[in-house]
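TICKET: design request
STATUS: open
ATTACHED STRUCTURE:
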């Protein structure tokens, strides 16, 4: 084995066909040792090589003759001085922050901590036990892959329909996925899964975190796990737990195959990424990687007492994005997933944290600047979860041009309206039409709003309409975890019911939520499983439930099959009507001499809404007319976009109501296209109505009518 100086970049372990270059950043270390292992189960290194070369605070070496599949880790020497922000401990084997593959998972023991568990000095003490038998090893990988003509799909935002889903939960119980592929990256390539996504009509899957993550010790002690995966330790490594073949980094190729297969079906891959914190937690957490490599560089520490961590995430620590090397790690990670793994975009967990330059959230932060200037990343889909748990962290509407946002205000308004709360009409009008109050002033478009009613975090749609309160008892925290969802809607009977009227009302409310979602301007995001009535037994915080509470149940009953057919119909309807997915905000006025405004609001009596009506704020019923011949937009080839004029009737009252259909000229006719009060084919027996006639709306229902083209 020959050791040469090597190069400081690229960081990580890079195979060039003859050997491997190793490069590790540490600003404050006094020495770095590269440890080589014969396999993932090895408890003692076969070679320990001191890195003698250091360039720009990067320790590096090139080892001739090493091959992909080599397992390795680092031991980093330096001061153990927690009060000064340093927590070096060379007795601890560390994961490379740039590892492309991590074999195995953390096996908890007291040796995983840099301090002595039980010592009266707590984290100020120093532990000398070796942890090599408990820490997963990094793996050198061969990046070669036959992509063919595969590339990012770049589906336009206005045509995007996002499906949020967990890699394992989606296929863990799927009867048409081979047993060995269930719950894996390969499971997502099976024909049954691809067919479901295509028949549903979604254009992108947003995968819950697939970066290598850690099972929290407190969960392991209770026999639970971190199912969602928001506990990252490897920002460039796909998690090995979702692999059919985890041997020597093969799961990297398996992930690439998944992406290529989805792309071939026309489906984009968006990753939910967690760059705001790591799995090492606060000062009492384990030493796994960053803490032992350079704690003061990688983490935000309290200014006047560097023993402690700034915590804007609620997870114990916050990555120090103000440090150039930490920012570089994030950017290198993002570029890697785009250039090497071909993903199409990212959803940033607690994205406000990444914009904190000092303390306040800053729209002009270095993170935003670098992303916008990057020729690769600026062309991907960038989605923010626009809040964190720190002061001033709720930033819905405040992210810069180029970003889309999870629109929490949309979710809350839609829930309150469907629930039957009064005083929602003005707010509802903004949310249905793209939230111009949040995005137009900054030059953003309606597709800056990612609209959703439910997501992984919270009730499923079925549970939202079935439970008054959360039921998280299985999490082992006395039902104290998870938020108290005051915006949940309930039929009046909690849990399962045999009353047909109650059951049908629940199904109707599901259809109402989904109808509003897919009729709203902006980008709809469907929480995976809501289309088949997936339930979690009232658990609205199933982050630790890697079992049937979280997994999809594909044995559908009659109501679930009807719901699936309804969602397919809704998405197809949206795709076929450009007026529902405009690229520009409505102007509320006549366009190109059209005799109707592009957007009009009516009362149930057929009269146009006045300022007094809006200010009254008590009504729960409304009519929205979208003029298809007044879109005033052109397609990508410059051709004018013309669509049907649609009428959307909303009745959130608990009693039926007759709506007078508007008539902007004599003889017009409206054709009923959809009615959520009907579980079947969703068309009235008498499907055509004259302008001025009444349309009978059932309680808590929504209807959509199309202007007859002959008029």
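STATUS: resolved
RESOLUTION: sequence designed for all positions
ATTACHED SEQUENCE:
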């Amino acid at each position: 084995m020959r050791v040469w100086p090597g190069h400081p970049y690229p960081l990580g372990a890079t195979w060039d066909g003859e050997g491997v270059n190793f490069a590790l950043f540490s600003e404050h270390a006094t020495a770095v040792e590269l440890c080589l292992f014969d396999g993932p189960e090895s408890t003692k290194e076969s070679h320990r090589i001191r890195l003698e070369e250091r360039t720009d605070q990067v320790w590096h070496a090139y080892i001739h003759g090493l091959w992909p599949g080599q397992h390795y880790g680092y031991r980093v020497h330096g001061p153990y001085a927690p009060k000064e922000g340093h927590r070096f401990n060379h007795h601890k084997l560390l994961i490379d922050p740039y590892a492309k593959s991590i074999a195995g998972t953390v096996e908890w023991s007291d040796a995983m901590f840099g301090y002595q568990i039980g010592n009266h000095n707590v984290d100020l003490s120093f532990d000398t036990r070796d942890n090599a038998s408990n820490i997963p090893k990094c793996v050198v990988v061969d990046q070669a892959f036959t992509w063919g003509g595969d590339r990012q799909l770049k589906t336009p935002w206005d045509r995007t329909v996002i499906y949020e889903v967990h890699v394992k939960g989606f296929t863990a119980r799927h009867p048409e996925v081979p047993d060995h592929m269930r719950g894996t990256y390969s499971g997502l390539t099976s024909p049954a899964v691809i067919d479901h996504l295509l028949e549903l009509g979604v254009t992108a899957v947003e995968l819950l975190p697939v970066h290598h993550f850690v099972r929290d010790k407190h969960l392991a002690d209770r026999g639970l796990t971190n199912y969602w995966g928001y506990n990252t330790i490897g920002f460039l490594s796909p998690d090995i737990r979702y692999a059919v073949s985890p041997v020597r980094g093969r799961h990297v190729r398996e992930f690439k195959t998944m992406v290529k297969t989805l792309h071939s079906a026309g489906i984009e891959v968006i990753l939910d990424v967690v760059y705001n914190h790591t799995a090492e937690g606060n000062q009492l957490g384990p030493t796994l990687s960053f803490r032992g490599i350079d704690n003061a560089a990688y983490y935000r520490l309290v200014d006047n007492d560097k023993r402690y961590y700034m915590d804007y995430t609620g997870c114990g620590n916050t990555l120090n994005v103000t440090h150039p090397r930490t920012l570089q790690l994030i950017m290198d990670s993002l570029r890697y997933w785009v250039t090497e793994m071909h993903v199409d975009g990212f959803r940033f967990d607690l994205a406000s944290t990444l914009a904190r330059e000092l303390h306040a959230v800053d729209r002009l932060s270095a993170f935003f600047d670098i992303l916008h200037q990057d020729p690769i990343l600026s062309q991907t889909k960038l989605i923010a979860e626009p809040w964190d748990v720190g002061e001033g962290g709720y930033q819905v509407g405040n992210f810069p041009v180029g970003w889309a946002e999870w629109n929490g205000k949309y979710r809350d308004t839609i829930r309150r309206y469907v629930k039957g709360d009064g005083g929602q009409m003005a707010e509802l009008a903004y949310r249905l039409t793209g939230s111009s109050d949040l995005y137009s002033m900054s030059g953003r478009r309606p597709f800056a709003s990612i609209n959703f009613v439910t997501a992984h975090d919270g009730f499923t749609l079925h549970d939202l309409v079935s439970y008054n309160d959360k039921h998280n008892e299985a999490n082992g925290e006395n039902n104290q975890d998870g938020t108290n969802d005051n915006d949940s809607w309930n039929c009046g009977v909690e849990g399962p019911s045999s009353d047909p009227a109650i059951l049908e009302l629940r199904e109707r409310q599901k259809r109402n939520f989904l109808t509003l979602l897919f009729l709203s301007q902006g980008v709809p995001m469907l929480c995976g499983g809501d289309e088949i009535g997936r339930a979690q037994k009232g658990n609205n915080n199933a982050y630790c439930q890697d079992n049937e509470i979280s997994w999809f149940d594909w044995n559908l009953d009659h109501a679930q099959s009807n719901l699936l057919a309804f969602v397919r119909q809704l998405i197809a309807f949206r795709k076929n009507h450009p007026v529902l997915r405009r690229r520009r905000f409505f102007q509320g006025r006549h366009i190109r001499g059209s005799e109707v405004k592009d957007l009009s609001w009516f009362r149930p009596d057929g009269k146009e809404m006045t300022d007094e009506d809006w200010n009254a704020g008590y009504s729960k019923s409304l009519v929205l007319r979208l003029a298809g011949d007044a879109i005033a937009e052109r397609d990508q080839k410059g051709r004018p976009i013309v669509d049907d004029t649609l009428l959307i009737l909303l009745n959130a009252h608990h009693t039926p109501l007759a709506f007078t259909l508007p008539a902007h000229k004599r003889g017009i006719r409206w054709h009923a296209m959809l009615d959520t009060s009907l579980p079947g084919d969703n068309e009235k027996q008498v499907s055509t109505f004259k302008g001025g006639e009444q349309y009978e709306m059932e309680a808590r229902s929504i209807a959509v009518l199309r202007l007859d083209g002959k008029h």
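CLOSING REMARK: The mean pLDDT is 93. Residues 587-707 form a domain with the Immunoglobulin-like fold (CATH 2.60.40.1180).
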